[in-house]
Amino acid sequence: MEVIESVNIHEDIKKGLPSRDRYIENYIATIGNLGRVGIKCLCYNFMPVIDWARSDLAHQLPDGSTVLSYRHSEVLRMNPSTMADAMASKARGYSLPGWEPERLGAMGTDIEFYQSMSREDYWKNMKYFLDAVIPAAEKADVRMAIHPDDPPWPLYGLPKVISGAGNIRTFLELNPSPYNGLTLCTGSLGADRANDLPAIVREFAGQGRIHFAHIRNIHHLTGVDFDESAHLSSCGDLDMYAIVKEFHDAGFAGYIRPDHGRMIWGEKARPGYGLYDRALGSQYLIGLWEGIDKDGR
Ligand SMILES: [Mn+2]
Description:
Elements: E1 3-5, H1 11-15, H2 20-36, E2 41-44, E3 56-60, E4 66-70, H3 72-77, H4 80-90, H5 101-104, H6 107-115, H7 119-140, E5 143-146, H8 165-174, E6 180-185, H9 186-190, H10 197-206, E7 210-215, E8 218-220, E9 226-228, H11 240-249, E10 255-258, H12 275-295
Parallel strand pairs: 1-2, 2-5, 5-6, 6-7, 7-10
Antiparallel strand pairs: 3-4, 4-9, 8-9
Helix pairs in contact: 2-7, 10-11, 11-12
Bound molecules: manganese (II) ion.
The site of manganese (II) ion has 6 residues, from helix 9.
């Protein structure tokens, strides 16, 4: 195993509290430990309080499968703590990454804290973190790979920062080391129709700043509502061939995984993380890669 996903960032680091230095020291120790056991890439996110949000974890598609779905008005009708309750009740007993019970207790006060924080201060806290940990990542030969915000727009007045090409550029400039890089998640960024995924892959893979790729498809319903879908281009709105081709043509040598899948064939698993549809997704991506590779020879 060479990729670890995720090592969470303590809220005190994101908030910029004096206590952050202690947690950053712990983070640096973790990076060193991971490097010693052969980990080459660390995926993390810098989203405040809410890791990711959906309005339904088992939305039924016409083929009988279920997927995670997002209806903006339903999400806005909730508040962060009712959202936490809804996520827990729909998870069928599985714990959801980023929605662990121990994180939910302080949610209300955390939200108020971030609502009064400026975007600039949030960027400053991010830079403070990067400048502290990236030298350790270089030394341990562990590439840091930030995951974009999901969905890629602000919710409940919380700062969201990694949501499109412009702010990804800003993020990468905060610390120019190649060890400061990206987890390029096509489904998260692809929820915003304004994001041109092949162009984004071309730009940042070309700079060697993508270390890890989550490749999945998404089906847009409106500008802000979407269903997750099977990986195939024909099942959603992203051109998976064009995306994989940009990775291929950039000489991408990092890690790729299929991302969330449908729940199919009666499988019972953590929502979004069934084995069967993700296995189909991985074979589809491998097939695209082989076709593109042989075509280009
Ligand atoms: Mn992802």
